[in-house]
Each structure stands twice: as structure tokens, then as C-alpha cells.
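Let us work through a complete example step by step.
Step 1: write down the sequence.
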Amino acid sequence: MSRLFCVLLSFFVTSASAFASGKPLVVSTNTIAHDLVLQVGGDLFQAECLLPAGSDPHAYEPKPADVRRVAVAKLVVANGLGFENWITKLVKNSGFRGELLILSTGITPLAAAECEDHDHHHEHGEFDPHAWQDVSNVIRYVDNLRDALVRLVPMQAAAINARAAAYTAELQSLHAYAAATLGGLPAERRKLVTSHDALAYFGRAYGLDIVPIAGLSTEQEPNARQVSRLIRRIRAEKVPAVFIESTANPKLARLLAEEAGVKVPPSLYTDSVGPEGSPANTYVGMIRHNVDTIVAALR
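Step 2: predict the structure and record it as C-alpha cells.
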């Protein structure tokens, strides 16, 4: 069977699946966006995600199957702010004719320079893309998503609006929970050393000093001088723990923790929700897990 025939067959299978469901296909570029689609859209849409849970969006390379899925999608949902540098090319190459929704539209992003606590050169661009780490930003994400889904299926506006309102209330409670729980940490325990620079929005929103080992991308690593300086800082400021994100390479963070003589708590979920069945397999679960893990390790 020729490769061309296989590609065409797979394309038609994907198209037939979307058509047979009778529901518009909504494709998300990351697991956090995908969860928001599930929460706001419910079973009104055929929701699919290009990345599996636990994968690293920074290092992701689209596959031929992704081109086929995007080609027949009615809506593609992305974070924006340079988080998915590959999405523009993917949309163009697929012949996609639907709407590309940038969830972060309308928020006030942190400039990459504001997030630096080291000498890394950031390759993401002008802004830090990890805006979902501040729950109040995700409330804006939900507004943008709600409007896009209503544009897609106007006859379901009432149902979509109701689901969005209920989920927004849940997010407001989550934001209050994070602020109150992290607010209980004493001032000298508010330093968070993480494996990469994904938590600047989290730190700004909830009053933590974020000290990343690596840059905005998990592929950016510090040099030996920067690692040595960070070890001295951890010791001098009596930082009790080094946190590793689930999608980052743990080797450097574990080495740094060992050299500094501090503990490594359970992983934080930053760029992806957790696997199915884990307490972090939704956005809300992910934030709650991170808040509880951080407080348990730092207090």
C-alpha cells in the first residue's frame, strides 16, 4: 500500500469520524486548552487535543495526523503568546478554514524580561506565555472560548453560556482558595525554586518569589556558573525545597537539590494537566495540586 494512499485513507477516516459524530470538531494545541473546551463545551463538540497529557508543548513537533485533524476542524484553540510557535505553520499547511482562537487575547501579559532572575536568553519572544498560572487570566480565557463556541453553534448559545458561567464560578473559588492558602505562608517561606520559568504569573498573583533554574522553555538550561550561584543562594536564604515540573527534565533540578541539601517534593503540573485518573487531570485539579504541594513543602 503506497504512502500516498495511506495518507489519503487516514484523512478520509478523520473527516468521516468528524462528520459521523454530527458535532463540530474543536482541536486544542495543549491539554489545558483542551480541558477548558471540555468544561465549557461539554458534549456539544467533538473535542480533541494534539498533545497527550504529560507531553512538553515547548518541544512538540506536529505529526501528519495533526495536519489531518486540523484540516477538518471548525475551531483550533491555542494559548498564544508564543507558547505554540508551531501552530501558525501547522494551520497554514493543513488548509484549515475555520477559526483560530487565541485564548490569551485581552489579558495583560508579563514581558519576558520581567520574568528573568538569571542570565538566560529567552527564545519565546517578547512575552511569557504561561498566563494560565494566574487563575484570573483563565477566567478571561473562558470568556474568549465561550464566545468562539457560540459563534460556532449559535443555536446552543444558552447551554454554552450556562456552562461557562458555572465554570467561571468554579474558577473564582479556585482563585480565592489559592490566594488564601498560599497567603498563609510566612514571608520568609515564599521563595519557590522551580525547574523552569513557568510560574511567574503564579508568583505575581499569589505573592511568591519565583526562582527558576532554566528559562521560559524547558529546552533552555543554565550554565555551570548560574547553577553554582543558585546553589549558594538556596543555602544562604535557607530555601527548603526545589520543585520539578512534570514536563521538564528532572536531572538538573535533582542535582541542584542534592548539592544544596534540600528536598524535592512531588512534581508540579505547569505546562500540561496530569494523566487520566490523577488528581491533576483537569485545570482546576492541576492548580489545587500545585497549591497544596507548594504549601506542604514550604511551610
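Step 3: interpret the result. Residues 157-183 form the longest helix (27 residues).
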